[in-house]
Amino acid sequence: MYDYRIMTPEQRADVVAFRHQRGYPLHSPPHPETEAPEFRLVSAACCNHEEVLASFERLTEFEGELLALLHAESVLVAAWVVQPNHYHALVRVADMRVFSLKLGQLHGRTSHRWNVEDNTPGRHVWFRCQDRWMRSQRHFCTTLNYTHNNPAHHGWVAKWQDWPFSSVHAYLETRGRNWLLALWKEYPLRDYGAKWDVWRRGS
């Protein structure tokens, strides 16, 4: 099982460097103070939060496919995070119904491939995606913090900047650590998203 938590700082740096060689991120993050109201947080989890993506290869593979889909659909991406059993993407989507169909196709392709690899025919991998419209700049900025902090919240890493499969590294490069810390202080999570991880088996 992939466990980023036990890697040394040097090994973690190698993982991030590897990802940059593959072309992640696809573009710089947008300016939240001007574009926030048009965004949605799109989320999906594996059924029963089973850690189907719990390998470096699958995390890398799915992140690449998700970002490629977002790029192909000309979706503006503010933040994303991919974890062993769920993902979040803070995106601006022109037509959510069309985008949901594209995500469904991605879920179907990956489900089939992973079930073949794991010899688990018929396993239900993904629960249907959910989306939440950003109502304000504050809602957007808090959601951005929530997205980047999610791996630490779930215990995959101790600090949000340590998880490699996340847009936080793009922000560290383009805005810097102090900007992210200031955003964290200005838009704290408190109990934001506290009940979001209650997922049921579904389609």
Q: How are the SSEs ordered, and which strands pair?
A:
Elements: H1 9-21, H2 32-35, E1 40-45, H3 56-72, E2 76-82, E3 86-92, H4 96-118, E4 130-133, H5 137-153, H6 168-174, H7 177-186
Antiparallel strand pairs: 1-3, 1-4, 2-3
Helix pairs in contact: 3-4
What labels would you give this structure?
alpha+beta; 7 helices; single chain; Alpha-Beta Plaits; 4-stranded antiparallel β-sheet; 4 strands
What does this molecule look like?
The chain is α+β, with helices and mostly antiparallel strands. It has seven helices and four strands. It has one domain (7-186): Transposase IS200-like (Alpha-Beta Plaits, 2-Layer Sandwich), CATH 3.30.70. The protein has helices at residues 9-21, 32-35, 56-72, 96-118, 137-153, 168-174, 177-186; strands spanning 40-45, 76-82, 86-92, 130-133. Strands 2-3-1-4 form a four-stranded antiparallel β-sheet, sandwiched between helices. A hairpin with a 3-residue loop joins strand 2 and strand 3. The chain is globular. Residues 199-203 have low confidence and may be disordered.
Share in β-strands: 5-15%
How many beta-strand elements?
A: 4
* Regions with little confidence, pLDDT below 50 for 5+ residues: 199-203
Major β-sheet strand ordering? 2-3-1-4
The Cα radius of gyration reads: 16 Å
Number of helical segments?
7
Q: From the helix content, strand content and strand pairing, which structural class follows?
A: alpha+beta
Major sheet summary line: 4 strands, antiparallel
Integer count of domains: 1
| Form type | globular
The CATH fourth-level homologous superfamily: Transposase IS200-like
